[in-house]
User: What shape does this take?
Amino acid sequence: MSNRTPTDDNLPEALVDNRRRISLVWLIPLVAVFAAAWLGYHTLAQQGPLITISFLTAEGLEAGKTRVRFKDVDVGLVEAIELSGDLSRVQVRARLAGSVSDYLNDNTRFWVARPRLSATQVSGLNTLLGGSYIAVDLSTEGAPQDDFVGLESPPIVTATEPGRIFTLTADALGSLSVGSPLLYRGIEAGRVVGYQLREPRGVDIQVFVDAPHDGVVGTNTRFWNASGIGLSLDASGIRLDTQSFASVLLGGIAFGNPSGSDTGELAAEGTEFRLYANEQAAFERRYSVRETWQLAFAGSVRGLLPGAPVELRGIRIGEVLDVQLQLDAERRTANIPVTIAIEPDRLGIVDAGGQGAQPRDVDRALWDRLVHNGLRAQLKTGNLISGALYVDLDFYPEDGAREIAWNPGGIPELPTVPTPLDELRSLMTRLARLPLDRMGEDLSATLAALRDTMNATNGLLERLDRETASELSKTLQQTRNTLDSLERVLKPNSPLQAEAQKALQEFGSAARSFRIMADYLERHPEALIRGKGAISP
Assistant: This one.
């Protein structure tokens, strides 16, 4: 074997690769970062906007636990609760889901759902076990908004409920309140959702009519107050009106259409309607033309009030507008002018003058003819219990010739006749004024003169007794005895004269009693039914 020494040329050489390669190990953290980024983006997209809700108190709310719900579906979570700068309210910050971000606008409403018990509703009982939460009423219309003022009580109507809102105008709110039922043919078809003062006077009441009942609200629809139990006692009698039990306790409104007519054109949302006091006033036929007349009554008008009916033979043709008292200091008399309104359309008399117009000249001949035939106005009792009076027009031909006082530039005056009670009182007054005492004195003087005559006749009979036969003497004696008896009966202190004077005095007392009774019945006509003892002093 030979020994060979290797040279440098025969040695192996290392190859150096300067290219950089990525190890597969680094893919694991890259995938983790990408997944984390995607999850973060997805979480932010699902969280949606952060909003602020202002409440008076944070009772029942807790950060990190209180949920925000829409129709019992969780759509958010309360993240923080802070006090406002002036310490008057609390600021609740809540993160909502992105799916509801498009429905946050100025019509969106928030409130705290907690147990509530009121006269109109019971709500939030489910929170007794699950705790309070923030309820939201989302809206599809409105300007975007992320700062809200929470409601202190749940809204009566939510934005998703089908129906329409109308406005009713009234003189006063009465017993109505938010939540009072709205009735259609006795069925609850809506409710009162709000009210506010109307300038310069009155009240505007917002009502919500549920679908499909809102489809029957048209231009001919009438709304009236159906609150409580309506009891009226006037000249027309006693009327009792009531609706459902809920309206009796909570107040309510009813609506409907006049009998025999359709609803008219469908009313648009927000249309204003008049709220009438009752159903009768809502459907009462109205006449645009009214003529004013004046009446003058000599007796008392106690029980006659504005609004009392004016009737012609039992048919209402108008009403009383005003009752006044005018004293004449010079004559020391009292005049009571009563102003009435007559609707000529009810009589078939058309007056183009308008509201409050005076009778036209073309109608004067007709009215003059009616008065010439005996047309008169008289007060009559419409209700014995309340003593309410009304004005009755009828024909009294026996009253004599009378004329209408056509006052130039003023209100014409129709002639009147006294009431039967006034006539009875006048008769009693005249009887009480009879000079009964003087009549008794005249009767006593007459009896004294008769006594003197009888004495003279007795003397004559005595002379005849001496000059005539015995038969005539007996006859004259009998006549004298009769006259003596008559003298004893008719002398001033005789029982007959005393009884006569006593009878005259009792007749005078009876006349005064009749006058007192007439005055009492005029002040208290209800005593005819209830009796005098039932009237409080």
Q: What stands out?
A: The chain has a mean pLDDT of 77.
